[in-house]
Design goal:
alpha+beta, Spore Coat Polysaccharide Biosynthesis Protein SpsA, Chain A, 3 domains, 17 helices, glycosyltransferase, GlfT2_N, Glycosyltransferase family 2 protein
């Protein structure tokens, strides 16, 4: 392994020519160049990207690297690394002024130093920069101002002195029937140049019937990866089973200091691999280092800067003073003060997450929960063992957004409910997880009042399975999904059609009273209670026969709230991705059955909470051990083709 000065964070340009992501890399008038055949010539008054690490700034123009991917997150390095300073190393030719700036945790900009360049040959310069003032947050970045002649930035990087060994990583991609997505990731890694130098192995855990090995060009990609690629054929054990396989294989091989978990429905910025490894190498103590998630379909939108668990609710929330779904094209880093404050996290999603092998040895592998809450539980478990999770700015993927999925309504509702409860039993600091049981009861009730009976049923089955104890987790991980899909198939609200014309015509026996069809959200607690009581009474009344034959209305996905749907006897409701619709029909008998079980199960949970908590906590080391997981892998066998 190489020792000596280490590159921590290289200044980079976008891999592709997508104009939507340019602002995440460079601020100012910038275009890709040289122009490809058929494209318009490069504008003479714009900076021109000429390579992965270089660009040309025209005379009298100015560009800035106060951007997500190229500013240096000094606050994170100050808090979590052993470093006391960094150096900006920059190479420029032409006539230029390079001005270095920093921000405070309050988002205030401060000028630090400037360097003059005036040479036809490339000139390299360095600036030492102190990390001490960044305990609460802040960034470093620089601007390039061209003089009377163009300025060419050949390269720039943030480096550190020291004697820290270079770590290496096994990349673990869990894939299920997304062969093109998974293969595209492999192509990106194969073309990432020296990023491959820190990768020991790329492990694709393929759990589907549509195989990544059948993707067009797979053989050539495997060859380009130079023997680093291995595909593991495994029965579908969900995300927790796929990622645990990557963890276990990393430990068994004994080569890598880290495992990097990647979802199969993401597009990664390849440079993130180097940044995550460099940060983990310099961490004060072993740390989980996560990449951020951007919206794959709206690429400047950042899902979250950091996420925490609200302990009294036991639900995920954005870190203090941050927000979800921040659009950096509307409010870039320079204009978003809260992004300059260091945000600490309880966990990082496993769309991109680097975990040290030493952490795997200390706290084990994933909880065997198939999908949902596995990454959250792992981060909280690690925190309890003194291992921080650090979402690192500048390391990221673009991921299919949650808002385009019906994750909380389809079969995943079972895992969301069961796994949230188990995670709370394992880690909540409050008696009976604070407010969680009440929230759970209310959520099932809301789904039942909204005619989402399949969702309510699966949530109740999730609660029922909690009572089976920790031994059921490994035993059912390979069979539960098929069972849930069979259950859900028996509900009309789970049946979908591609077009509204495939359903009976929308008609009503009588028009809405006084034409009041639109429904506003509840205006406060008294109004919420009043509407809930009225909706509950309505659920027990007979259904209009006409509504059994004809939907009374159409409800777009954005409006599918309990206070809207509970007013109808039937409705056509569209899916989150806008491709399909379902016919919801009120069923008083089913509603009564669901509410009876909802009440009984939550009462039982309340009574047996302490006993179940002791059982799950006692079993945690065994059910997350590499040895127990290996038994599950061997028993599951390969994926069905």
């Amino acid at each position: 392994m190489n020792r000596g000065p280490r590159v921590l964070h290289r200044v980079i340009m976008p891999v592709d020519r997508d104009p939507d992501v340019l602002g995440l890399y460079v601020e100012g008038e910038v275009v890709h160049g040289p122009a490809e055949p058929g494209e318009r010539p490069v504008a003479v008054d714009s900076a021109e990207i000429t390579g992965r690490r270089s660009l040309v700034v025209p005379p009298a123009a100015r560009i800035s690297f106060c951007t997500y991917f190229n500013a240096f997150p000094a606050g994170h390095w100050r808090r979590w690394s052993v470093l006391g300073e960094v150096r900006l190393r920059i190479a420029v030719r032409g006539e230029a002024t390079v001005i270095v700036y920093r921000s405070t945790a309050k988002g205030h900009q401060q000028r630090v130093e400037s360097i003059e360049f005036d040479s036809e040959a490339t000139v390299g310069r360095e600036i030492r920069l102190d990390l001490q003032p960044f305990i609460d947050g802040g960034w470093y970045w620089f601007d390039v101002l061209a003089g009377a002649r163009p300025a060419v930035l050949e390269r720039a990087e943030w480096v550190a002195d020291g004697d820290v060994a270079q770590g290496t990583v096994t990349v673990g991609i869990t894939s299920f029937n997304r062969p093109k997505f998974a293969h595209d990731q492999l192509v990106a890694l194969a073309g990432s140049g020296d990023v491959l130098d820190v990768i020991d192995e790329i492990l694709v855990v393929d759990q589907g019937s549509d195989r990544v090995e059948d993707a067009d060009g797979f053989a050539a990609t495997a060859e380009a990866l130079g023997g680093r690629l291995r595909v593991v054929d495994q029965a579908n054990l969900g995300g927790s089973g796929g990622f645990s396989r990557a963890m276990e294989e990393t430990l068994a091989a004994g080569r890598s200091g880290y495992v990097l978990l990647l979802d199969d429905d993401v597009v990664a910025e390849p440079e993130s691999v180097l940044r995550l490894v460099a940060f983990a190498d310099h961490a004060r103590t072993p740390a989980i280092v996560g990449g951020h998630m951007f919206d794959l379909y709206d690429r400047p939108v950042l899902h979250a800067m950091a996420e925490n668990i609200a302990p009294y609710r036991w639900w995920m929330v954005p870190a203090r003073n941050t927000e979800y779904w921040h659009d950096l094209s509307e409010e870039p880093l320079r204009e978003t003060p809260w992004m300059h404050q260091r945000s600490d996290a309880d966990f990082n999603g496993w769309w991109m997450c680097l975990i040290p092998a030493d952490v795997l040895r200390k706290i084990g592998l994933s909880l065997p929960v198939f999908i949902k809450w596995d990454d959250i539980e792992y981060g909280v478990r690690a925190r309890a063992a003194g291992i921080p999770t650090v979402p690192l700015p500048g390391a990221a993927v673009w991921h299919v957004p949650w808002r385009d999925k019906d994750n909380d309504l389809d079969w995943q509702a079972y895992f969301q409910e069961r796994n949230r409860i188990i995670c709370a039993m394992l880690h909540s600091p409050y008696e009976r997880a604070g407010n969680m049981l009440k929230e759970s009861f209310i959520m099932v009730t809301k789904h039942a009042m909204a005619m989402q009976y399949s969702t309510a049923e699966l949530m109740l089955r999730g609660i029922e399975d909690v009572f089976h104890g920790p031994e059921h987790l490994h035993g059912s991980i390979g069979t539960k999904l098929a069972e849930l899909r069979a259950v859900r198939a028996g509900f009309t609200d789970a049946e979908t059609r591609k077009d509204l014309e495939e359903f009976p015509t929308v008609r009503r026996r009588r028009p809405p009273r006084k034409g009041r069809d639109a429904v506003s959200p509840p205006s406060g607690r008294p109004d919420t209670i009043r509407r809930a009581l009225a909706a509950g009474v309505k659920q027990l009344t007979p259904v209009d026969d006409f509504a059994r034959r004809h939907p009374q209305t159409t409800v777009p996905h954005i409006d599918q709230r309990w206070w809207v749907l509970s007013r109808y006897d039937s409705a056509l409701v569209s899916s989150a991705d806008g491709t399909r619709a379902s016919w919801y029909r009120r069923d008083p008998r089913r509603f009564r059955d669901l509410m009876r079980r909802n009440t009984a199960l939550h009462a039982r949970l309340y009574r047996e909470w302490d006993e179940l908590t002791r059982a799950y906590r006692l079993a945690l080391p065994e059910i997350t051990s590499p040895e127990r997981w290996r038994e599950t892998f061997d028993a599951a066998g390969p994926a069905a083709r």
